[in-house]
Amino acid sequence: MMQTTIKVEGMTCDHCKKAVTGALKELDGVQDVQVDLNTGKVDVSTNKEVSKEAMADAIEDQGYDVVS
Question: Which intervals hold domain HMA (predicted)?
Answer without folding.
Answer: 2-67
